[in-house]
Fold this sequence. Notes:
The protein is α/β, with parallel strands linked by helices. It is built from twelve helices and 23 strands.
Amino acid sequence: MSTITEISRNIHYVGVNDRTKHLFEGLWPLPLGVSYNSYLIVDKSVVLIDTVDHCYTDLFFEKIKNILGERPIDYLVVNHMEPDHSASINDLCRVYPDIKIIGNSKTIGMIEGFYGIFDKFHEVKDGDRLPLGEKVLTFYMTPMVHWPETMMTYCEDDKILFSGDAFGCFGTLDGGIIDYQMNTEKYWDEMFRYYSNIVGKYGAPVQKALAKLSGIDIQIICSTHGPIWKEEIQKVISIYNKLSLYEGEEGVVIAYGSMYGNTEKMAEVIARELAAQGIKNIVMHNVSKSDMSYILRDIFKYKGLIIGSPTYTNELFPNIESLVSKLESRDMKNRVFGYFGSFSWAGAAVKRLSSFAERMKWDVTENPVEMKQGITSEKIAQCQELAKAIATKLKQ
Ligand SMILES: Cc1cc2nc3c(=O)[nH]c(=O)nc-3n(C[C@H](O)[C@H](O)[C@H](O)COP(=O)(O)O)c2cc1C
């Protein structure tokens, strides 16, 4: 039996690394790749927790067989049905025809719909327990973190929470699997990005899940993406808590669109003045160059947000339009907000940003700047006033 994969007594890591895919969910860049984590518990009963992306099914089975040999798997726990974790279910049922699939009623409906499997189910409800021999699993329903069927599985004996996508991040596991085996530095920004891109809309369900888990003694978190958390558990839970409360650190994101540089000049003046006011974390994103994934990450990270847009066919600049719709769909909360824009003959961008600000119910500065054509000393002064107002609000 392999010990190199063992993360706790008789619990093995059987996940895989994806260094091939460019975009997660067809949308979010993967410069550091991503891991699909799966875990095998070998007790009197053998249990597999989640599967992996279909591109890696062969490698996945190889890893399982290295540990089990010809011994069959008795149960598959499906904590989350997103295909990067569930896509190997059909193959698993072919190789292990007597396997029972553990999920809640919503999971079961989805497995029927996605994979045409209509039997083999062992349905669980919140708090249900499954004895495996020595170890016992308990199932916690955590709906909408970030699909309706999402649940988590707790192994009391090892104090391990198998958390599904929660507490996950982008980035492959390059040698180390558990946090103390690696330098975790590269994963923190990827955790912000993962949360803001994928889970961001579901702050309230994440808070509910955190409250439900708060009474449980968790020593190890095994998520479906990224490192296994042991030493850094408190930091990881605190990041998820802050992000789901939409709490931002002191700092400002300036996200602007600019075709010919006029709106960008306004952004530069604002950034310079923010720095003069003592704001040290200033992140500027030209929305035509920065990928939306990183802009969202930084907006979730910092409390201050300033958006600038030229008027474009009587609308917002298209990439700014896309950004504001993503913020609305994530129901982004608690931001200190300022905005500015430009036009040449009939301005629309500032009006659109003004109604966006109203809809978001943020703390908005009352001095947006609207510029016709080129920058003037009057507009420079107004941009500086906007920056001062943001800095003042951030320091309150
Ligand atoms: C395709 C296109 C559409 C535009 N539509 C409008 C418009 O509807 N109303 C307007 O006043 N200006 C419009 N403009 C002018 C720009 O808003 C204006 O020149 C602005 O200063 C551009 O900012 P920039 O230099 O940061 O790109 C348009 C410009 C372009 C290139």
